[in-house]
Specification:
Largest sheet: 4 strands, mixed
Distance between the termini: 32 Å
CATH superfamily of one domain: Cadherins
Oligomer: single chain
CATH topology of one domain: Immunoglobulin-like
Strand order of the largest sheet: 1-7-6-3
Helix content: under 10%
Shape: rod-shaped
Number of helices: 0
Order of helices and strands: EEEEEEEEE
Radius of gyration: 25 Å
CATH class of one domain: Mainly Beta
Number of strands: 9
């Protein structure tokens, strides 16, 4: 079963969702544990399946993460199942605007009304 989650960039330790597996066995053999790859940007609670960010994500570096979660039962010869999580990172305006010049200087006539004084340009490099 594929899972799809969304998370805003820049937030570490935020729960983004939950994965779930079922096992028809009774007792210890029916208990399930969840795992993610060690190098993942995410972590999963081994017992509850709750998935959270391990570190702050950056939309400008990676907009989507694909992570395989593994579920294992506690049988002596464990049964294993996997599912893919697709995690979309939502962009936030986290970059400062940049003016086209470092400073601006203008002369204004005394007592002038309704006069356009200066026009400045600013760019956002949040790409």
């Amino acid at each position: 079963m594929p899972y799809q989650f969304k998370i805003r960039e820049g937030i570490a330790g935020r729960v983004i969702g939950k994965v779930e597996a079922r096992d028809a066995d009774e007792g210890r053999n029916g208990q399930i544990r969840y795992e993610l790859p060690i190098e993942s940007h995410f972590e999963v609670d081994a017992l509850t399946g709750e998935v959270s960010t391990r570190m702050a994500l950056d939309y400008e570096k990676q907009q989507v993460h694909y992570v395989v979660v593994t579920a294992k039962d506690n049988a002596p010869d464990p049964r294993i199942a996997t599912a893919t999580m697709t995690i979309a990172v939502e962009d936030v305006m986290d970059e400062m605007p940049v003016f086209s010049q470092f400073s601006y200087e203008v002369n204004v006539p005394e007592n002038a009304r309704g006069l356009k004084i200066i026009q400045v340009q600013v760019s956002f490099y949040n790409v």
